[in-house]
Amino acid sequence: MKSVCTEEHCFHAFDALYCALTPGARPISPEFPDDKYPLFVTWNTCRPGRHPRLRGCIGNFEPMSLHEGLAEYALVSAFRDHRFRKIDKSELPTLECGISLLTDFEDGASYLDWTIGVHGIQISFPHPSRLGAASASGTPSPMSSTGYLPRLTSKQTFSATYLPEVMPEQGWDKIEAIDSAIQKAGWNGRITEDLRRGVKLRRYQSSKFTVSWDEYVVWREKHEQV
Length: 226
Description:
Helices cover 27% and strands 27% of the residues. The chain is an alpha+beta fold. It starts with 6 loop residues before the first helix and ends with a helix.
């Protein structure tokens, strides 16, 4: 089956970043269909002999026009991922760009109703004090935090996501993945079984493609000659 995501999507995102960092550079007009998909743009730093290292990853679960959406989130991911400093021009030769187009969204019957290596997960849950879960009712997983219940603050609902490739890359089982997503969402208290059962889970699949800076340069030079 033909992949939904292609190298052309990655080249378009790379081109948006290159032009944003290079005065006078003109973007190459995309040639792929302007379909609408939920999407994520991932930037990794690549060093010889090392595994790629995350440099930025942000996306949108609302279907977006690919022409505008990929260009927009290429820059959002590069410049506004609060976990990292902004990408600068000197880093371009070390980067690879991954595009994930999200498909097949389904509500899970429980927090365990998904398949590692197939599904990404999108979770949301209320503050545990709203569930009456102040007391521990389950054995914390190896990734749980310390056993206390923070005060209810203005953040009454938590949410987070992991793309499908994250769980196999990290070697997580389902509970480890859910617990990590709960922490990623901003919960820093103890993770109990009641809390897990309060998670609303949506599973999804993704079509992903990744290209390197060198591949992008070849693509751009080819199109500049046309």
